[in-house]
Design goal:
The chain is an all-alpha fold and about 100 residues long. The chain is built from 5 helices and no strands. Helix 2 runs antiparallel to helix 3 and helix 2 crosses helix 4. The longest helix is centred in the middle third of the chain and has 22 residues.
Length: about 100
């Protein structure tokens, strides 16, 4: 094999390690964006069940979570993301900067 074909193979291997199923990038740890979506989904499912089984008032919390998700999409932050940042969970941008500095 010549050097060109070896470098192409190495590039393909590096690319396959960075990409997961359907050629989507593999997540590199838990960032605020992922944790907020995880928490919101869990709260929505739990409050939906509680709203059906216990009291319809639980649906107010479901609505509150929906409003926070809309605010996060429109503005780029929500109350839970501020709390998570204070707890030390990095944002995707901070994680990218860490990766660039390590290289």
């Amino acid at each position: 094999m010549d050097n060109d074909s070896q470098s192409v193979l190495q590039g393909d291997r590096a690319r396959s390690l960075q990409l997961g199923m359907f050629d989507m990038p593999k997540p590199q740890g838990w960032t605020i964006e992922r944790v907020v979506n995880l928490m919101a989904g869990a709260v929505v499912l739990v409050t939906l069940i509680l709203g059906c089984e216990r009291s319809k008032r639980w649906r107010l919390l479901t609505g509150f979570v929906g409003v926070n998700l809309i605010m996060d999409a429109a503005v780029g932050w929500c109350p839970s993301s501020v709390v998570l940042h204070h707890l030390g969970v990095p944002t995707a941008a901070e994680r990218a900067l860490e990766g660039e500095q390590a290289s």
